[in-house]
Amino acid sequence: MRIGFMSDNITVASGYGKVAKYLAEGLTERGFTVSQFALQYAGRPIMVDDVKVYQGMSLSMLPNYFDEERPDVLIHLRDNWVFTSFFPNKYEIIKFVKWKGAKVVLYTPAGESPYPDEFIQPCREADLTLTTSNWSKRQLVSAGAPAERTDVLYHGVNTKVFEPNPGIDVARLGFDPSAQLIGMVGVNTVRKDFPRLLRAYARLTQERKVQLHLHTQPRRSDGFDLAVFLDQLGVKGRVSFPEPPVDAWWGTGEQGLSDIYNCMSVYVHCSKCEGFGLPLVEAMACGIPLVACDNTAIPEIVGDGGLLVPCPNVEYTNFGGNYWLADEQKLHDTILSVLEDSGLRKELSRRGVARARSPEFDWKNITERLAKILEGL
Question: In Å, how far from its chain's centre is CA 135?
């Protein structure tokens, strides 16, 4: 069977790029012929571990890709909103792919609730929708996605890369060995509540010697200008960002990111919603004590591997959905409790590693299940 992926380039370390890479590699090992219609970085097609990657392909080149590779199934590994008017370069590919005789599988998260009807229409047209959590499936089905054509396939984590490294040279990576480090990883969008974490951090600096690393872009058009918050809160110079600045498309290589996690005393995932949340399992796999928001898919993914902060307040999105906001006092208190208690940090580390190493996050198991799904289409 010939499989095509339409997603971030598997040569880059963005979230979707990593997922596409592991799935493509796993399918080729199982005898599938896999190619990729990559959506950034132009260049001639290249072979990457037996996967032929068409780089930087514009949508006008999709017919050429199909003529060359003739995939039986196209897996669209992106958010559904790219099909809609909310995406500046909205595109319609499902009818074309079916006209070419191939099946369409959408592999998309869904964190918001209620999920907009415009985002659901592609699920009604696709042969199958895979989503990243049971939470996401409930949102999609309740919004109108066909239940019989909607299934759950988790993302995974490579525990040979993301693993505890207690001997990490913190100073070499630019952090102060004498201060505890709080960290958060994610693209700077309004869905990631960096300002709320910064407010909690500003209070913590009055109580402990602590540093904060935000592995994100300091400024982004569809996110926040975080420098404004640093000035307002009086923590400018105390908060670090990647150097050189991390590119939202390229991401950070897995080993480099694992090293950064391993410098942290606590990982805080302050997010308004998640359909999965790769940094959650990456941080747990590294044995980093985890504090996260008790909303959307996050408690499902974290299990007993971390501490959850209540999110009692709602913020409305521009497409009619809801975001859930962490209680700021309890966010501060929970982080502080982890920083102050070495026994708690040790216990959270143990629980996090055990959770991340569970079979449901193993890439081999995930690709085996995907292979069976594809063969059954």
Answer: 15
